[in-house]
Amino acid sequence: MLIKLTGGTVYDPASGIDGQQQDIYIQDGRIVNKPVEDIQVDREYDLKGKTVMAGAIDMHTHIGGGKVNIARTLMPEGHRADPVARTHSTRSGCGHATPSTFVTGYRYAEMGYTTGFEPAVLPTNARQAHMEMADIPILDKGGYIMLGSDDYLLRMMAAKKDQKAINDYVAWTIHAAKGIGVKVVNAGGISAFKFNQRRLDLDEQNSHYGVTPRAILKTLATAVKELGIAHPLHVHGCNLGVPGNMNTTLDTIQGIGGLPLHLTHIQFHSYGTEGDFKFSSGAAQIAETINKNKNITVDVGQIMFGQTVTASGDSMIQFINHKHASPNKWVTMDIECDAGCGIVPFKYKDQNFVNALQWAIGLETFLLVDDPWRISLTTDHPNGAPFTSYPHLIRLLMDRSFRNEVLSTIHPEAQKMTTLASINREYSLQEIAIMTRAGAARLIGLKDRGGLGSGNWGDVTVYTDNADRQLMFEKPAYVFKDGELVVKDGKIVHTKWGTTHVVKPDFDVSVEKDLRKYFDRFLTMKLDNFKISDDEITEDGRGSLTVHPTKGEAV
Amino acid sequence: MSGLTFTLKYRPDQRVDMSPLVYQKLAKLEPAEIASLTLQNGKRKSRVDELFGISGSDATNMVIKNSFGKLDFIGRELEGGSIKIEGDAGAYLGLGMKSGAIKVSGNADIFAGCEMKNGCLEIAGDAGDFLGAALPGNKMGMKGGTILVKGNAGERAGDHMRRGNILIEGNAGDYCGSRMTAGTIAVMGQTGQYLGFAMRRGTLLLWNPPALSASFNDCGAHTLSFLPILFASFKKLNSRFAAASAAFNRVQRYAGDMSEMGRGEVLVKITHPGF
Prior knowledge:
Helix content of chain A: 25-40%
Number of helices of chain B: 4
Oligomer: heterodimer
Strand order of the largest sheet of chain B: 5-1-6-8-9-10-11-12-13-14-17-16-15
InterPro entries (chain B): Formylmethanofuran_DH_suC, Glu_synth_asu_C, Glu_synth_asu_C_sf
GO molecular function, one term (chain B): formylmethanofuran dehydrogenase activity
Helix content of chain B: under 10%
Protein name (chain A): Formyltransferase/hydrolase complex Fhc subunit A
Order of helices and strands of chain B: EEHHEEHEEEEEEEEEEEHEE
Largest interface: A-B, 9 and 5 residues
Number of strands of chain A: 26
Protein name (chain B): Formylmethanofuran dehydrogenase subunit C
CATH class of chain A: Alpha Beta
Pfam families (chain B): GXGXG (PF01493)
Strand content of chain A: 15-25%
């Protein structure tokens, strides 16, 4: 099967193509060079005047795992208000902040997204997370394995085990839980919460293990680097949402000693304490520091006004936040002594000073970080807003007058506290393509996604150019997944199943000796049941695994 | 002008969502327009005139004849007018109704008067579980108005109730008044286990001694002057609650649920004041 996409204007930062008219050929799922003349084109799409990009990648979106299901259970009103009927090609479901798995896949694809990564796969719950993501159609998926508050690691660190032993444990866990990266959430803080610590600063010791968040970050960032995992340690920092936390964030960046680090939902970690309300924007300083430190990458975690539900592993912070729950109901829980979970519904309001300033801080961050290759477009779905708000967010970034128009409607004190109005930058289509495609793929280490060069998989999104970028990005003309047309005019026409992206770094198998004893003594399942086999992902006939190389391996 | 009457032609196998047939949606429609409205019937959609014979035109006095227990969402968010149901009603009868009156000659299924805001709901037969309750996951049940049940009520009557009156002439099932925030539930018959489970405030008025949990404290016998006023407000009802002989003012008072806020009360009629 040979498909020809004719005459579109191509934005493919991965191969340095910025708005050139070009034909793209897809053969049997993969993008190929122009074939020799005599091969017959089976299907041709005339894309003259249309904008062509690779399928978009959401590198941080909570779409699977226990917390998403708890959020669904906690917020049935969102589902009742947004029922989705079945069609001849799609199944029924329900939507809004935590849509059903099927609707998650459909709505992402209908916006031109073809890949999403679940950022908090708790190893103990990884099986459930993968099974749930296996029910998300069309999208490719993957997960970052959550470590840093797990008893085993903290015991190892307390016992001063060497880095090699920790590397083996990390690599073993990535294998067992089928991850593509490592995430740390409020390093050690989730554990400290259970020993009655309600805050844990970067250099404060966990009262039980005597380990500090800084030491955990350094140890895990080193492990990730030494194991050759492409995606840097994915860090949800200390003190999320706390006024003045920008200093913690700056300290985290300075103190990591040049190790690669990805700071996620940075917006929630960029707060100062100035002004009458003792809450101010630290975006300028944070952005400046990011610009200077090339080892740092970030995603924003933009908030949008409206009802959503926050779902986080950070039970320490979510416990503090429960006072703001709207509607007033919330869950904070321990999970198998290895992590935590907090679900708090939120209604971000533009007439609330703090919410309005959070909105502005996120946008300041987008606009003040110079290098789009090192910043990803996220709302930390569903924590800042549901992913369906991305087209609106893209318009805010690309259209200065629209941005200022919205800015003029938010809480007046917040308007005074932000420099947003004075920032002239408007994102170009190429920069959007970097943030949502090529940059995200490079950041995660996806070898054949996020680009349109020959050899890439045929994940292609075609937009109809429109000065209103929200309308443009809301409703792509065509979306191809692995070379199959799945969306036409913003509606699903065909569904298929994506793959699961993983890495498999090397480790010393003797690591299981101690782990087996530990599992037998302390945990609720046996070590052999803990490990997810490849078959579990693939045996239903629709899932598949794509293993990406670690650095040092031949590609 | 005679009342707008829907006569069910046959009993469909699947449940029917009756929510389009309310006063505020029908008041300005011609009979032909009403006939061509569609109702969700299981996974199909059926025209109104496919399921019902239609006569009369006065939407303020609606009648549903031959009704049975698979007609759900009757009187959903009703605003004005009255609905008389001859037969049984399905689930979610009067869901979120804002004003007006609904009368059922038979039984009502689960979630009758769920999240009702105001108005009057009268059930001549029995009511199912979650009478006047909140939808699953929601924090506020009935917020106002009156529900009168002449038969028995199921479990969880008044779950998460916020305001208004639920009057039950027969028995109430387990967890009556569970998680109540406020409001009044009166039960003439027997009550089940876990009465007032996790109630915060509100009043449970009982004719018969309940099986109370340990988290309710006995506050002794009281003569409460508000009770005659409360009973006087029932006078206009077509109910045993309206009878002068039903009224009393001497009660044993229990406070609870002490595992919650503990400002709720269970008032039990003292039958032999001298005892």
